[in-house]
Amino acid sequence: MSFIACENHYKSNQNELLSAKSSNQNSDTPKPKEYSKSLVNSGSIKIPLDLETSFYAENIQYIDAEQLLITLPLSSNTLNIYDLSDVGNKLTKKIKLQTEGPDSVKGEVGGFYYHNKDSIFVLSKFTFEVFQVDYEGKVKNSYPLLKEFDPKLPVPLGSTFSPIKYINGKLYISCVAPEEQVQGTYENSFIEYDIEKKKTFFRGVNPDKLNSGNWEGIARLYYDYNKNEDTFVLAFSISDEIVQLKLPSQINTYNVKSDYINSEDAKPFSTDFKKAADYLERGKYSFSTPKYWGILSDWSNDYYYRIGIQPNTYADFSKGIFPNTIIMVMDDTFNKILEHEMNPTEYQYDMSFVGEKGLYIANKEKYNEDDNFLTFDIFTIE
After folding, report:
1. Where does the source fall among the domains of life (predicted)?
2. Contact 164, 131 (CB under 8 A)
3. In what order do the strands lie in the sheet with 39-48?
4. Domains in the chain: how many in total?
């Protein structure tokens, strides 16, 4: 395990979207373990969609104090703001981010963070600048994360499972693997950008196994922020380790093993960092590798949710058969409370958020039945 904290500047790549086709469940999935608590589908909320809004959102943010849900639909450069305190969960605002002119955010948006109506931070996916815009989409400030291109440095990109955060005058932005992977690459790091000092720092805590070879982009860092404890919670796609990080460098590490996801079976594609997979090899490698997907902090109820993806075979994948998705629930000291198997194709798991009632997950099947609504099923612990 190594802690990273270094100043630098860098470049980006496109996010790898994970979406499952409709399929049958894998009959080889293990039977659930016995736990004293259960994850129960306790209801749903329906959000009306206009004709401009697609189902998939690259980034979503829920603001509990105001009961606002903000989505960034795929390739839309538009922030949709929904009021969940309203009976109809109505759309209250569309912020269309410009790509040209004085209020340009310089291309496609690669993540956002809504701080308040005067400070909405959006990341340009290809210029690696963060723009501070207001409620009307007017640019107030811009913050360049990198001074020059370096293909060996990680790439900034926000997502629902690795959200952009603004805390005490600093921006925190996740990274994906650089174009040129070499031993010692900070593949699983995130950026800390000090707005006052206008400086970029890399932050992160990496499992030692990351330096064992080329992971072809599947070795990812996911994190969330627990504002009650003022800590980041970091989880790694190819490791059982969970790290509680209080900046600048105070860390606690927990090893929380799954009943279904054997992280020891996660191996690099190649021990040769220069050996790259072709498209088919990358696909086979990715879906045959057990991995975790995201971690979400339910700070008001003292829970953490972690999503796991079981390995699949090429034959089953070709037939549209996927093993069940796993949701692990931990308490506030990272003791595992339960693991719950979920239909792998019914839900879009990277469109999840934590609200006052529990874990909300976007339901794809309900959207396919009625594309006028985006439905989130609510899962509570009983």
Report:
1. Bacteria
2. no
3. 39-48, 373-381, 358-363, 347-355
4. 1
